[in-house]
Amino acid sequence: MLSQLMVLFGFFALVLVSVYWVNKAVVLFDQLIADGHTAGIFLEFTALSLPAVISLVLPMSAFAATVYVTNRMSGDSELTVVQSTGYSPWRLVRPVLFFGIIVAVMMAILTNFLVPKSVEQLRLRQQEISSSVAARLLREGSFLHPSKGVTFYIRDISPNGELHDVFLSDRRQDGREVTYTAERAYLLRDDSGPKLVMLSGMAQTLDLEGKRLSTTNFNDLTYDISGLITSPKPKRRRLNFVSTPELLLDTDAIALETKKPVAEVLEEAHSRFQQPLLALVASLIGFSTLIVGGFSRFGVTKQIIAAIFLLVVVKLVESTITEPARNDPHLWPLVYLPSVVGILIVLFMLWRAARPYRPRRSQSSEVPA
Question: Beta-strand (E) ranges in 85-239?
């Protein structure tokens, strides 16, 4: 049974991750490619977003795998045969428990190590990309405004990096407007910063106060564009970027750095342990709910609906305790309440399955000897 659970878990996880990844990849593709970035940057960003996506779908995959395997074994009467040989529901739940522990360990590695590292690296790469000169300026057929008072346009970019029909308007100086046009241009970088080298062009200077226009033709002109690209200020870390040991051992410092309450820092730290427990609870609820009804020729549709309903109840408990846990640092144990409620539900279902309901026969239906 454990091997079947692992195989189906891998299948459902692959399907769900693919669905979520495709949806996220489409958004990233529109943003990055439209801004002039390469396919390599797109693949890097999607790879960095995968750990968070995987941690989101693993509990659902565990629940789906458990329900599917239990339903198939019940439909083939395998569970009925095994129970008739003396196996109790407490014994049958062992492989599901081991399976849930495996999934919980995988979730713990993701939530405590891989996801914080990946989102932190994604943030750093986003800052680097946002300060890239090529990404900000090299876009064909679009009027760009890289800085206040500056307009930049390129008609076409050749495969060797040559810019055709360049337009640059600089209105940053009060009372003066300079417009540069060039047939060709190159974007270069030296020790002092990026430069735009324009060839075969004209510079038009408009004196707004005197209403005078002067023009200058040039064969080549070097324009310093380092002032157009302003690097974004480094942002303070968010809670989901910080490692779990820091959240637990240096809570006050992290709260001061992220400008968040201490209670919210503790809630974030303990939720990283709570999420793996929910994956374990989801698989146990799926199994215990399906075996409580025993074998039926009509299937276990009602039990599947009941299992989904119980998961919704657990998630409702989670949403209810989130706000109090984030407001009071002494209430961090409430973070684990959804898992406690889920375990209690599982224990009740297993106890109920071990004592199946048998309706009593009325005395009137008994035939006298």
Answer: 150-157, 163-170, 176-190, 193-207, 212-224
